[in-house]
Amino acid sequence: MVSRVDMYHRLEPRRGARDLDNGFAARLHDPVWFLARQWQMGEHQGENATSPVKVECSVSRKPIAPLDGNPAFDPAMVPAEALVESELEDWWTMGRRIRVGARLATSSELGLAEMPAMRFRDPPPPYSAFDGMVDGRAVWLSRQRLGIGAGAFGHDAPAQDSPDHWDPQLLSYATTFDTPEGILAVRDHRGGPLDWYSADGEPSSATGEPSSPLDLVLVPTPLEYPAAPLSRFWEIEDAAVDIGGYAPDTAHFATMLLVDLIFSHSDDWFLFPVTLHAGMVAAIESVTVTDAFGEIYSSQETLQDGALRHVGLHAPEDFSLFRCAGLRQHDLVLWLVAEGPLESEAIERVQFGVDEHSNVTWALERIVDAREAARGPLASDNANPPYPPSQPSGDLTKPRDYAYKPAQGIETHWHPYTLDHKEEGGPTYVQGGLADYSLQRPKPLPRPRARVLQAGTPDAPALHRVAAAALSGGGIELERRWRLARDINGQPVLWIERQRRILRGPPARNIMFDVLEESGEG
Fold it and tell me: What is the pTM of this model?
């Protein structure tokens, strides 16, 4: 018997020898074509064939002097927003006013409990329970008139106030900081972030000698950031990285250049660190770069072929990223900025707008003392009754009677400003007043309660004036609110900020005078 054996043939893959060198070699099928393509694209010119290995630079530093020479107002220690925007007496929070007032009220010698002007009057919630109690801030402001010394306040005496830089006529902040070679002027600051771009240089008499230049020898490093193109072609980039998640941030200028860097190679950009302190005007006066081949590139002028030339490094003549008016092209203002401060709800909101129909500018109080302003006519009483309401008959075939009313549409918290072309400094809106003529005995409307509508001092009040150039056609809005940040040592800094914004439409009132209304049958 003959047996048969069936044989099967099959192909099986053979596992490689795990040769990692073969994978990293990245062999090309046609290296001649690759070299020709590089030659065609100009990559054999060797423009990027080396890298910087050493940077030598000289940095000048001009310190910014504290405001009024007071070390407590040093821009190297305190955020610039708190120095420029701080109000007088903004140390007096509601808690301090209540605590100091309660302690002073226990002194029978002062007799504050018998003075209505020294008490709280209708405080905003949640402080309504303290209505009628002694207000510590009111006592502090009137201490000289009352003959009360600062010793009576003990440890609750407020710290020295920074100067008030708010211009009530221009509705903006303005101040200056001294430097050894001039001043830094902050003009027309409307509240909000106060960075290097908010200051301009102006010449003045020197206030001191600048510090000696700082000579540094640094090692440059390639720029790296998430989602940057990888320098090694065998590396795989992370697909989960979304470059759109890095929003440009004015506080960190590097993020503003990120979009441009995405489209370049990461090894084409190098960084070298220059450590400086806040509160100065700094500038890199000279830079010398040494590359891996020993070549030296300098920003200083050298004599070549009988002429002065820059060797490799020179700044553009008509372009600068951080230039401020009045300063040199390469000067950079460094001061402490309140990054992400905490802020309260608006404690005041006032809107300005030109009313063409009434030929006045209205200032409307929306929020006063951290609550909505209750607008409406004045409350009537027996001594000042309102005019009786008109009740027309509706029958047009009968004779009709008309009732005379002096005015209609007048409400509280609306304050008129009339234009005066004779004011010094240009056309100016001057604050006026209204009376409620809906009552048979007209009564003047209350004066403005908002701080932004007041001028002068509590002892010598004055009419508020607003420059016509400060108002826009659509109107503006002013807000006051508390802001809390920290200084360079981490200590809290609290101040009240005023901020000006543009309105889409101005507030307007339909006020009529000498009105005849149909009152009934004749």
Answer: 0.77
